Amino acid sequence: MNDFMSAGVHRLWKDHLLASLSLPPTLQALSRSPPAGSPEQPLYAHLDVAGGTGDVSFRVFDELSDCLPSLRLPPSGGKAPQATVTVCDINPDMLRVGAERAVALYGADLVETLDEPPSPAKPLRFREGNAERLPFDPCSFDSYTIAFGLRNVTDPSRALRNALELLKPGGRLLVLEFSRPPNPLLSAAYDAYSFNVIPPLGAAVAGDEASYRYLVESIRKWDDQAQLTERMEDAGFQGVAHEDLAGGIVALHSGWKL
Amino acid sequence: MLPLRLSCRRLSSASALRASLLSSGLSHVPSLGWGPCSLVAATSDLGLPPSAHTLALPPASLAPLAGGGRAPLVHHHMAQCNTKLRELREELLPSWQAQALPDSDRRAHLLRSRLLMNGPFVLAGNWDEAMAVGALPPQAGETATHLGEMLAVVQGAGGALSPLEAHAERAALGAAYVASELFMLSDGSEGFEDTGRFLDERLRELDALAAAAPGGGGGG
Fold it and tell me: How far apart are the first and last CA of chain A?
C-alpha cells in the first residue's frame, strides 16, 4: 500500500535518510581508532524506532556491513559484533514480520528475534518497546531514526525527550515524516490526491477505506516543518534543521545531542 | 579516543560547533580531500565522536550531483578567505593611502593574496576538485555569492565608481581572477610567481581596454 500511495517514492525517501547518516566515513574513522571502552561495546550502535518491518533498519545494516564485512559472518565465541542495529516497535506483530524478513535475508545467526532471549553477539535485534520510554540505557546509541512513526506516538514530545536520553553526546536523530508543502498549488493538488484517491485505493488494495481516511486526516493534523523543528528543540536537540522532500510532502528533520 | 559511555556533558552551541568543525576540517583537506573524511578528522580534533561530523554536512549536500558532501568545506574556505581578505585590506589601506598607491596596484595585490590562499590545496592537487564542486548547479549560487563578496572587498580598496562602472569593473576583475585560478592549477613555479605575472598581465589588458573605451580613463 505504501508503494501504491507514494508510487514507490517512499523507497527513495528512505534511501535519502540512509545517505544522511553518512556512515562510511564514520565507520572508517572508528575502525582506524576505536573509542576507548569495553571491548564488548560495538563501534557503532543504531536504533530504528517504529520500523517494525525493517525498511530503514535493513538499509542501515546493509551499509554497516558494507563498511564492516565481519558483520555478515556468524558470531563466534560470543564476541560482540562491531556494529548493531536495533529495531524497536510497539507492535509485536510488525516486529515478527520484520524479523522473519531479516532471517530470510541474513540468516538466523545474525538476527535476534522477538521471541528469543537477548543475544549480545547478534548484530540485528528486534525489540518491543514504546517510543515514549524505550527499554535501553541512556547514552547507548550513535544514531536514532524514526520513519513515518513519530506522528502516531501518543506523546511525541516525550518520545523525543527519550530519544535524546538514549543518544550518546554527538549522536543524531533523524525524523522522516509527512509534512506540509509550502507551495499552495502543490498543497492543493496534494489535498485532492490525499482525500479523493488514497481512501478508495485503501479500499481496493487493502480492503480498508476507513483506516486510510484516518491516515490522511492524521497527516493533516500533524506538525508542519517549523512545528516539528520547535518540538525537537524543546526536547533538547540542537542544530535542528529540515530538508523538504517531494516538495515538502515529506520532510527529513535532524537534530544533534550536544 | 573517547569512552563509549560519556556523561552527558554540555558542548558548545550547534552553530559554533559547526563552524569549528568546518575550520578544523579545512586543515585536513590537503591530505583527506574535500569530502566527509576531513570533517570526521575534525571531530577527533574537537574531542567529538566521529558521527558528529554530520553536523557540518547538510543532507542536501550529500547527493552526488550536489557534490557528494564536499560543498560545505569548499564554501567555508571561500567564506574564510573573504574574511581574511577583508582584514588584509583594512590592515594595508592606511599605508596605501599614505603612499597614494594607485587603485590598480591595490586590486592586484589583493587578488594575488586571495589566489595564494588556495595555494595549499593547489599543491595538494585537489583545488581543481573544489572548483568543480563550486561550479555544480546546486552550488553555483552560493559560489557566485562568495565570489561577489570577494570582488566587493577588492573593489573597496579603490576609489568610488558609478554603479555602471563598478559593475563592469567587477565583471572584469572576476574574469581575471578566474582565469588566474585556472592558470594556477598547472603552475609549478616557486610561490606561484608565474600566476602572479599572469594575473598582472590580465589586469594590464583590462586597464588598457578601459582606457581605450569611449570616455574611459582607467581605474587608477
Answer: 38
